[in-house]
Amino acid sequence: xxxxxxxxxxxxxxxxxxxxxxxxxxxxxxxxxxxxxxxxxxxxxxxxxxxxxxxxxxxxxxxxxxxxxxxxxxxxxxxxxxxxxxxxxxxxxxxxxxxxxxxxxxxxxxxxxxxxxxxxxxxxxxxxxxxxxxxxxxxxxxxxxxxxxxxxxxxxxxxxxxxxxxxxxxxxxxxxxxxxxxxxxxxxxxxxxxxxxxxxxxxxxxxxxxxxxxxxxxxxxxxxxxxxxxxxxxxxxxxxxxxxxxxxxxxxxxxxxxxxx
Length: 261
What we know:
Elements: E1 7-9, H1 16-21, H2 25-37, E2 40-41, H3 42-49, H4 53-65, E3 69-71, E4 81-84, E5 88-90, H5 93-96, H6 100-129, H7 152-172, H8 221-224
Parallel strand pairs: 1-5
Antiparallel strand pairs: 2-4, 3-4
Helix pairs in contact: 2-4, 3-4
């Protein structure tokens, strides 16, 4: 499933602008739709996302500029069709963790994945209720939220094992007409123990009864990453969609973290 030619590995040292291009939620959604449903035109994608054709076309050209998508075979000469070049986007969590911008990008990407899970759950429930999926999908479908105690090495082994098995099963079912697209989102998020609560202050009645441990130590992604402008107007073929947008600090890496629609 995720052979090298089907995986886009982002190296933050050389792909700063490509990382920046993926900060826009519509671009992530467009890329995910092309990966999930195959080639489409800007007009088709605009209808599915509720955007204007001009906006969809603009953001598709940004994705093409940074080699996430390319032109597909056209049905006729009137409108471009686009296709995804890879099935997943990947990077190194360890390298991203070394900079504030890298941490912010990973945090943003993970939140987009959670949003994708929420949309997928709603779609799954609607498909089941409408009979668009057979009863054989009732039992295996679901979400698990286990909390095992693992070492860092064991968590890495778990992800590697799941990835290998998923690749094996995907290859086995590739030509099976019973197969359907399955949203499979795995999370491994270690949590530190709660800090013991200290003595209550004298004016505790005026204090906010928040959690006993601090939240994330870095700012929200939208405040940390430079956002590129959104244009609703058609962009000329010779213009650079990201001209005038400052580059973030150089970063380096490869590895985990798959972007979903």
